Amino acid sequence: MSKLQHLTQLTMQLLCLTKTDSFRVLCARWFGWVLALALSHASLGFAADTPPAQSAIEALQTQAQQWASSHPSFQGRAVHVAPIDNRIAVQSCQQTLQFDQPFPGQASVRVRCTQPNWQLYVTLNSGNAPAAVARNGLPAPAVQKVLIAKDLLKRGTLLTPAMFTATEMPAPGMESQLINDPKLLVNMELVRDLTPNTPLKTYDVKTAVMVKRGQEVQVSAGVGQGFLITMRAEALQDGGMGEQIRLKNSESGRSLTAVITGPNAAKLR
Questions:
Q1: Where in the sequence is the domain holding 105, given as residue range(s)?
Q2: pLDDT tens by residue, 151-209
Q3: Which of 32-36, 37-41, 53-57, 116-120 shows the highest mean pLDDT?
Q4: Which of 20, 58, 180, 204 would be a feasible disulfide site paired with 54, CB 3.0-4.6 Å?
């Protein structure tokens, strides 16, 4: 009970004690009505002062718009999150969501949460896309360009465009998860087996590991500078194309850093 309600109660009790018995009965009823009304207003006031918590989807949309406002791919444009497949349960994130665009040129954006730990791919669209209508009057499923595997591809396969065929097919709820540009397959590998005629999705691939820890790497120096020196070194960490890793010279034992240029190959910076 607030100080105001408590003071009101004491005042009414003192007033009621100073009157006749019949007046005290009426006073008690009036006092009960006034106190109930005060409590009701206090409850309504508290509820009005407490803003409703955002749902997980609303929080994702808000933070996505904030991120897009400063990202070169979306800067200056009003964006919205495309509808998410209703089979995917979006958990509320206790931290600020992290956004990145692992596939440049596509509207597919990766959303990551650290507490609890999860990640999701969504599409950030500009404006409102008109819904197509089928002959039966219901919304027609979206037709999407996709890359489908020609043959069975095993986990760990280094991908090339020749392994896929481009086609179009309905993909309701999967727009943000499909890879449709063969150029994006460069230096990518599968993280799971892919059966024939299966569309390739963003969560099927990762940056290929060109050098693994403990492997021997051919390191070159002086490329484009009029001389060329090569040496053998042991990789001290895994790395993908273009990444800088630490190595150990196999002859001198000295540590060095180099940029990966291909499978088991690197060059000194």
A1: 56-126
A2: 899 998 989 999 998 887 776 666 678 888 888 888 889 999 988 888 888 888 888 88
A3: 116-120
A4: 58
Strand segments (E) across the chain = 79-81, 98-100, 108-114, 117-126, 143-149, 164-170, 188-190, 205-207, 209-211, 216-221, 229-235, 239-240, 244-249, 255-262, 265-268
Apex 231 CA angle, 230 and 234, nearest 5 = 140
Residue found by looking up tokens 């404006």 in the block: 127
11 lies in the same domain as 61: no
Number of compact structural domains in the chain:
4
Indicate the helix (H) or strand (E) that contains 21: helix 21-49
CB 62 within 8 A of CB 54: yes
Please give, one letter per residue, the 3-state secondary structure of 39-59.
HHHHHHHHHHHCCCCCCHHHH
138 found inside a domain: no
